[in-house]
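Q: Hi! First time doing this. I have a protein sequence and I read that you can turn it into a structure. Is that right? Here it is:
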Amino acid sequence: MAVEAFADIPGGDQPIAPGDLAEFRKRDVDRATIPHAAFMVAVEQTTGRVVGYASLLLMPEGTRRLAWHGMTAVARDWRGRGLAGALKRATIGWAIDDGLDAVESNNDTDNLPMRAVNARLGYQPAPDSLVMRGPLFAGMMTR
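A: Yes, that's right. Below is the predicted 3D structure, encoded as structure tokens:
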């Protein structure tokens, strides 16, 4: 599922590599900050095939309990049927039941389908950010 979904994530110079199963599990499933109960998997009943998954990533405790949506992945032949929204709603339900204060999401601007899912779920876009890298020229340095 991740191999198919990661290949379709827009943005960036190269597709994200899910790695082998052990690497994927270590990074995206079995991390201490990803509660197993907040990792939702959609399985096609007739075949037993995994057709989607979504997870939450708990942020370090501060003044409020916060989680970020991790990956929301849906098999290509299941997209457009509402599965991504159902998976995200399931993770939001877990967050509510667990007493989290907020859940946030982050998507590439080119990922229009997921941005539409987030909008339907009531997420509000944050201000855009711009990152610039390069050497400073002498006139900008402060002493």
